[in-house]
Amino acid sequence: MALSLDDGHLPLKDNVQEQLRQQLFYHLLNYTLPSLPAGSNPTTHTTLHYPRKPIDHPSKEPPPSPPWMPVPGGTLGGQPQRLRVSGRDDKSWVGVNAFGKGGVQTAKPLMNATNAHVVAEHSPISYFQKILTPDIAKLLNSTSELTLFLPVNDAWDALDRYERLYLESEFAADDLSRILNMHAVIEKGVRWTDSFESGSKLTTIDGTKLEVAVGPDNTTISSATIIHPDIYASNGVLHLVDKLLVPPGALKLTPEKYLLALNCTSFVSLIHSVGLTHLINGTDSKFTILAPRDDVFSLFGSGDLPERGSEELKRLLQYHFIPGRWTRKKLENGMLLETVLQEAGLDGGRQVMSVEVSADEKKKPSDRSVRFGGAGTIGDVEVDSALIYFVSRPLTPPSDSLQTALPFLELSSFLAAVSSTAQSDTLRTTPRTSLLIPHNPAFKRLGLLVSAHLLAPSSKQDLGNVLLHHALDTVEYARTLQNGSQHTFATLEGSDLQLNRLANGTIYASASGGWAGMKAEVYPHDLLTQTGVIHELSDILIPRSVQLTVGKLVKAAKGSTMANMVTKAGFEWILDGTKPPEGSPMAELYSKGVGWTLLCPTDDAFKEYNLTELYANTDALQAIVAQHLILSPDPHDQGVAPDDDPLNNNRPVFMEDSITYSTLHSPSSPYGDIIFRRRDDDKEHEYAVGIKGARGTDGEADWARVLSWGRSTTGGGTGGVIQIDRLLKPYHPPWSREYGAPTIVGVVGFVLICLFFYGSSDTPKTENAQDSAIESAKSFIAGGFGGMSAVLVGHPFDLTKTRLQTAGPGTYTGAIDVVKKTLARDGVTGLYRGMVPPLLGITPIFAISFWAYDASKKLIFAATPNRTSQALTIPELAAAGFLSAVPTTLVTAPVERAKVLLQVQGQGGSERKYKGVIDVMKHLYKEGGMRSIFRGTGATLARDGPGSAAYFAAYEVTKKALTPAGSSPAELNLGAIIIAGGTAGVAMWTLAIPPDVLKSRLQSAPTGTYSGFMDCARKTIAQDGVKALWRGFGPAMARAFPANAATFVSYFDLPGDMKPDVDRVFDVSGRLPSSSKEYKVLAQLAPPAFLDFIAQANRGCPSLFRANVKSIDIHELYMNLSVVFSAWRRLQQMRKSRENYSEADFVANVYSFRNFAIQKSTQRLHCTISLPQPILRRKIETAAMRILGTKTAVPDATIFVPASSVRCLSHSAKSPFKVLKNHPNILKSGCSSKGSSFRYQSTPRTNLPDAPGFEFASCFWEDKKPVHQLLEDAYRQNRMSTASAVRHLHSLHISAPIFGLVWASGTVRAHVDWCQSEQGNLPTVLSAPYSTEAPSLNPVDNDFFHEWHLDDPADIIKVYLFIRNLDEWTTEGFRERIIKGVEKFTENILTDTGAFQPWKRVGELPLATLIVHNENDNLSLSTQSTSPPKHKAKRRLGR
Questions:
Q1: Sign (positive or negative) of CA dihedral 1078, 1080, 1085, 1087
Q2: Residue 624: which residues within 8 A CB-CB, separation 6 or more?
Q3: CB 1038: neighbour CB atoms within 10 A?
Q4: What is the DSSP letter of 378?
Q5: CB of 1304 closer than 8 Å to CB of 1271
Q6: Residues 430-446: pLDDT tens digits?
Q7: Rounded CA separation 569/622 (Å)
Q8: Alpha-carbon gap, residue 1030 to 1034, rounded angstroms
């Protein structure tokens, strides 16, 4: 048979054309048909078509055999394909079925005969065609030798309705494949019906056995009958059967099938997209499924759900599955059920789902409404292994904690605070946390000033710690918190929170820090998050890591002016929340660290005041500050129980109406107290505060409105700041009001006394009145001149006495030391400081004294009219002497007050406050009026009364004792009179010295130190013992404290190996160019004032300049010196100003150039340094315990070797640090415990470095603080730090010097410290003051400190260059000494030729056995230390 084919319609694309050849062979028979059949009975023929799998890829190679030859084999087991031919309707049909139906007319060109196509052409199996998937179709077309028993449409009705719905879905591929495998047989050869034999069994692809039964009328396969046999296909044959060949139980109903049947196809589809089908296909695992129906999903747009197949969608779907079958009867309101979702934020733990059950008791448990995760349920269905609740919306798993809290507006303030810090990621991502979020009103209840501080940009660290304190480091749901009475939980901030449940069920959280009684009520709400849970709080909690000092609150109160006043008044320790400086009067009164409340006027309140005048008058400034300082009482001490309501404990003090508090000004003024009043007329400002008793109005006149407040956490958690709108100036009543009545009484009394003496005068009538008046005048003048002479002769002794009486412990070793130090500082004139007041007052004092003495004797005579002798007895003379002191005190008291203040100013480097006696009186009157001028009147009378009695009695007794028998005392010579007077003086001072000590202290102490004479006596005895009352009587009674002395050596006593390094650091000569070439270029860059500054430096110190300076960069030179010039110019402005600057002002404005000089080394500000362990040597007094007990010092700046440059000593496993750290000899030396470990001993710092290793410091500098009235204080504090550094180096056998710089009021001193070992390897710390800039001079002339004055251009440049030298030496010479020493020490340890001695203080010092080496003399913390004098320090070699 010939075929005519159109090349344009056939896929002739390669040389093989396998598919075309197979189609052609199907049209060919290997024999000739005599005729085409005309009958209806079909005949079967074999074609030349051997079906086979198509070639995968076309080939351009020639066919493997002649293309016209068929190739036996193929997919029918080597048999050719069959073809039926029959006649019908007078036409021939080819390819008919067994019944002669179908086929094509003989003229039909091409016919396709694969299984899939055959299936598609048979309508009885249309249902199978409906559920046929592409994968199954591919399988049918590609499987060879396939015999398929296919059920007709009606056979599928035997399946369960849910199973049929499932098969019709897009997710039934597995079940369809299994059903197909149960109906498909693959054997060698295709099984046509004529090959069936009864009793034979066919094995399906699924493994089931099909039993064949051949009958006369039909053939059955197991229980099914073949109703249409032998449907030919290219790769096999199909037989249609009337029943499914599925064994019972082979297909099980899974949750997925139910979900699909119950209109949850979208839910199932999403589950398939993320690979979670195991959750709905299993029949053994029990789940409670929360399924949204298709109509629920239709309400959500495509953007409302995560992307199909995404990890986010997978999380969401897992959240809809709860392990176990949770029927309505089992559910309880508030339950948390674990879901399948495993959260990374819960460390792999399961996320929970909240359950809400209606509380309608009338309904049965099975009928109550249930909500899961806030979504309602629309019914439920129980299936074999699962319980399905249909929910009203898809359930979104909890998001991060901040996102979860965002919809709750009452938590917005906390979220805003989080967003302003760097802690948002921490709170959002830290696993397993419970976040306690306070409500918005909590920030207001915290106190507006505290809130303002925490929310300020500069307080982000404090705010971050507060936020982290609200995050528990564990997941605690509501039921856990509600069970039990007390829980303690760690927080992300590092400290703990304590939760207490009261009997009524209320839960309170107590902070680790904050103020006394700080707590907040916990509202357990179980807001679920990715990382745990959120509960709510009533108030904010402050951790102990956040110190809310008065200074921080003052800044928040916009009280910078008040802060400056507090600092300048010497109370900056209150701002810092620390104890008063040791040695200060406040330290004795408030040594336990009490809390203070500061009434802080805003900066606007000072607009009407001249701040320059306020700052200039220190006493008035101190009085103003004291008026605003309240010693915060403990609530229990006030008799007021603290409020248990956590919402009302944010006030520094109780502010009830008419409540009164004493201020720091109260001891020195009757108007020091303040009073609070409630204001009903001002809703915004509820309270006012004023000075109690001011103008008799109890604060209604001198008052200020309370604007806001904040409570501090220092001082035991009491105190804080109250912001007010006005300054409360100390109240001074008019003179007439305060002194009118006493003055009138005094005048009247004086007149009456005069009248009495006039009436009782017994002057002989014959005496010439004129002569008497002349004699009286002579006596008055003689007494005056005699008194002046006594002042001139005795004032140096009086100054010595007064300074001994008023100086702090250890300031002087005795009277000689007073004289020596006074002469060294002020010269001979210093011994006569304060002489003007007694010179002016001596004449009236002597005159009144002798007049009163005579008047007293007359009074005694008048009182004893019947006496037998006209000579007064010794007791009567003593009484007359005592009475003479009474009127004298009216003049003596103010004179003594002025004299004492002038005598003590300037001692020990303190500020010279007064210019003279008039200036003293002006300051005293401004400070406290006449009361201040007459301070100490009672003490003066207590001194002069008994003293005068003893003086006159002893004088008369001594004269009588020296008068020869038969002679008159009037005949005594001058020597005898002098002896009598001296004896009388000794007698007087024996009695007068104790009250004189108290008088001197009363009159020289700051206002408020003592409330009176007895208070001064009590505090003096308590502080210094009874013997202090005789201080100043003589050197033998002087008190010396051994730990105050320091071992000083000369600069030329430096060890020989260190001196070149030290000389190199101090050598600044020739560092600047002197040629005009450089300065011509510099003139183009710099202003004229800068060039003048350089010129002044050249004139002051030509050695700074050199003609040939190598490698000079003129731009770098200008950049460096311009910083120095700016500091110098600022200092000039400060010197010209009349304002009193604190050392903090110098640090901020002048000393800034020193930071610029540090370019290679590492500078750390206020770095805490550990102090060394005392070396056993010498017993000391018990009083030394307070000083030696100190463990740390805080220099203002420390210069360290950069960690990177000494990393070679620590970074590797064989580095010296790691070798030494683990060596047995080191461990045996006492360095195995945490506090004394080698790591702890390897750094001078108290805080360990982040990476274990060595740290080395080369220099420390100390700024003279305002509270340090002595320059020696700063020097001593600096020596504490340098001594620690040299002890650190000595412990590692490193030989190197340590430098110290003391900065004070624009001057700089330097010293060099080092360590040397004595016998027995005991170290001694030696200190050499840098005393000259000419090291070649004779050492004998080189024994005093050199002082650089920064207002001198040459000196400030020298200091800058000196710091530059020190910076370079630290990273070069000092570093080399360190590496060499550590490596040598390591070698000695490894060879057992060296030993390590721990040097840091560890533990407490036992008082009973405390013995210290001289080094601790160097390290005393007393604020009354002696340092080398500025000009005349004696050279003493250290032992």
A1: positive
A2: 565, 569, 614, 727, 729, 730
A3: 20
A4: E
A5: yes
A6: 999 999 999 988 888 88
A7: 5
A8: 8
Per-residue tokens: 1196: 């203002």
Q: Where are the alpha helices (DSSP H) in 864-911?
A: 874-904
Radius of gyration of the chain (CA): 53
Q: Which residues on adjacent β-strands are paired with residue 629?
A: 598
d(CA 1348, CA 1310): 9
Count of other CB atoms within 10 angstroms of residue 1233: 11
> Roughly how many angstroms between the first and final C-alpha of the chain, as a whole number?
133
Contact (CB, 8 A) for 434 and 345: no
Provide the pLDDT for residue 640. 38
The full DSSP string for 1-54 is: ------TTTS---SSS-HHHHHHHHHT-BSS--SS---SSS-EEEEBS----PP
Would you call 775 helix, strand, or coil by DSSP? helix
Burial class (CB in 10 A: 0-12, 13-18, 19+), 1312: buried
Q: What is the pLDDT of residues 1107-1144, one digit of tens each?
A: 776 656 666 777 778 888 888 988 888 888 767 777 77
CA atoms within 13 A on the CB side of 514: 27
Q: How far is Cα 525 from Cα 404, in angstroms, rounded to an integer?
A: 12
User: What HEC string does 1339-1397 produce?
Assistant: HHHCCCCCCEECCCHHHHHHHHHHHHHHHHHHHCHHHHHHHHHHHHHHHHHHCCCCCCC
Residue 457 amino acid letter: P
Amino acid found at 1207: R
Query: On the CB side of 1033, how many CA atoms lie within 13 Å of its CA?
Result: 20
Residue 1268: other Cβ atoms inside 10 A: 23
- Starting from the edge strand earliest in sequence, which strands make up the sheet with 370-372, in order? 321-323, 287-291, 386-391, 375-382, 370-372, 350-357, 336-342
Dihedral of CA atoms 806, 807, 809, 813 in degrees, nearest 10, equals -120
Residue 603, CA distances (Å) to 318, 687, 716 in order: 60, 20, 29
Q: What is the mean pLDDT of each run of 10 residues along the chain (1439 residues)?
A: 36 60 78 76 84 66 64 80 85 85 69 55 77 82 86 87 81 83 87 86 89 88 89 85 86 83 88 90 84 86 80 92 90 90 90 87 75 89 86 91 88 88 88 92 87 88 91 90 82 89 86 84 90 92 90 92 91 85 66 77 90 86 90 52 52 82 80 82 76 61 84 83 91 63 46 43 43 48 55 72 71 75 69 70 71 80 76 79 81 80 67 69 79 82 82 79 68 65 73 80 77 82 76 39 34 79 89 72 72 87 79 67 86 80 78 84 88 62 51 88 88 84 73 64 86 91 61 74 91 92 87 76 79 45 68 91 93 93 90 82 51 35 32 32
Quote the CA–CA distance of 1328 and 1310 in Å, as a whole number.
Answer: 9
**Cα separation of 452 and 390, whole Å?**
50
- Residue 1106: phi and psi, rounded to 5, are -150, 150
Please give the sequence-ordered ranges of beta strands (E in DSSP) within 1109-1256, or none if there are none. 1162-1165, 1169-1170, 1178-1179, 1192-1193, 1197-1200
Here the tokens at position 143 are 């499987």
- 515-562 pLDDT, tens digit per residue, is 877 889 999 988 999 999 999 998 999 998 898 889 999 999 999 999
Number of Cβ atoms within 10 Å of the Cβ of 926: 14
Q: Select from 1069, 1076, 1117, 1146 the least CA-distant residue to 1358.
A: 1069
The C-alpha atoms of residue 488 and residue 503 are separated, in whole angstroms, by 18
Q: Which residues contact 466 (CB under 8 A, 6 or more apart)?
A: 454, 493, 540, 541, 542, 543, 546
Q: The whole model's pTM is what? A: 0.47
Residue that has been written with the tokens 């745990």 in this structure: 532
The strand pairing partners of 510, in sequence order, are 498, 519
